[in-house]
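Researcher: We plan to redesign the surface later, but first we want a full-length starting point. Tokens attached.
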């Protein structure tokens, strides 16, 4: 991925704008085909638009985390993630994943699940809703491990909320502390659920934890053996797999929440797909313009948002929390971290040079 500091906003979001126009037109046509009225067309058009905004608000922190990981990857693997990755994100998580959930839950094949989505969307949505608990437990656990691993790092010496982050960095010397924290939280929420729900939550959470640990082990193995790999694969495959699973975890909440607006799988795929294109564009812009290097607390805000999202996914197994709260909460944290970064830059006279490195021993409460 070539750096281009002079690239215009349209240059970064050009494809996203094109996909937006095409998606909204296609969504409107689906609405017209289903209802045969202008009202149906307008409703489908509006839902696609709302879903796109929902996806962007829920996934802005995902773009920041992706950018942080991408800057360590080779250009070849950066390109693969931004091409193959977006195909997996849009078609895999927005279409194949819901179909797979319904196929497994209803004990039918994927083709029958697709026909169910088209012919009986109410039943399809009900099956997806029933699958929310294990999905929330799995995704919440994976995301919580992502967030805690960032803060429980004894080498981390740039802190935003200093009294919290310094303490977590010190406790990072205790081996496996983040795993113990997650397991304690899992046991607490398991105790709050009854019967089969408690068992399902516990099993799904353990699978989420094991998935994170397996990805970490695989990444470490690939990094350790990178000298034996081809030049195209060095430093990239482990990070690619990590980002794909991370993207999937971020997508769980949006896919399930979308059924609150519409039960039509295809409108959901269009709306969330539009949003995914903007997340991809934001990721590229963050990497090429060195935004994370200039705004020192922006990454912190994203990981705090991840932790809050993981807790919300846990709480959603007990009660419904509107998706707008989830999205606005994460966006607010990122916005505050951005303002803190700007204030730091003004106080320390930091310019807009992405190559400028901040002193690593400073911290702001």
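Model: Full-length starting sequence:
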């Amino acid at each position: 991925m070539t750096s281009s500091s002079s690239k215009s906003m349209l240059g970064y979001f050009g494809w996203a704008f094109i996909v937006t126009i095409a998606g909204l037109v296609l969504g409107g046509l689906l609405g017209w085909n289903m209802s045969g009225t202008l009202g149906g067309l307008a409703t489908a058009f509006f839902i696609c638009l709302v879903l796109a905004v929902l996806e962007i608000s829920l996934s802005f922190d995902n773009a920041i985390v992706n950018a942080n990981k991408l800057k360590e990857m080779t250009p070849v693997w950066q390109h693969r993630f931004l091409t193959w990755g977006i195909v997996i994100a849009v078609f895999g998580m927005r279409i194949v994943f819901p179909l797979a959930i319904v196929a497994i839950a209803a004990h039918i094949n994927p083709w029958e699940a697709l026909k169910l989505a088209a012919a009986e969307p109410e039943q399809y949505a009900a099956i997806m809703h029933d699958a929310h608990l294990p999905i929330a437990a799995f995704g919440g656990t994976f995301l919580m491990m992502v967030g805690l691993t960032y803060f429980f790092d004894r080498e981390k010496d740039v802190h935003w909320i200093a009294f919290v982050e310094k303490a977590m960095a010190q406790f990072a010397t205790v081996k496996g502390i983040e795993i113990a924290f997650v397991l304690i939280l899992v046991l607490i929420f398991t105790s709050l659920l009854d019967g089969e729900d408690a068992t399902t939550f516990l099993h799904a959470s353990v699978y989420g934890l094991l998935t994170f640990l397996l990805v970490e082990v695989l990444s470490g193995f690939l990094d350790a053996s990178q000298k034996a790999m081809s030049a195209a694969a060095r430093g990239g495959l482990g990070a690619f797999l990590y980002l794909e699973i991370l993207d999937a975890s971020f997508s769980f909440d949006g896919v399930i929440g979308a059924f609150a607006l519409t039960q039509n799988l295809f409108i959901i795929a269009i709306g969330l797909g539009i949003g995914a294109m903007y997340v991809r564009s934001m990721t590229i812009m963050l990497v090429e313009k060195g935004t994370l290097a200039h705004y020192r607390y922006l990454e912190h805000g994203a990981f705090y948002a991840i932790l809050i999202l993981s807790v919300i996914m846990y709480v959603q197994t007990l009660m419904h929390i509107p998706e707008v709260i989830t999205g606005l909460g994460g966006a607010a944290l990122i916005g505050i971290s951005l303002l803190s970064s700007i204030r730091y830059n003004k106080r320390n006279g930091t310019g807009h040079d992405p190559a400028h490195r901040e002193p690593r021993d400073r911290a702001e409460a």
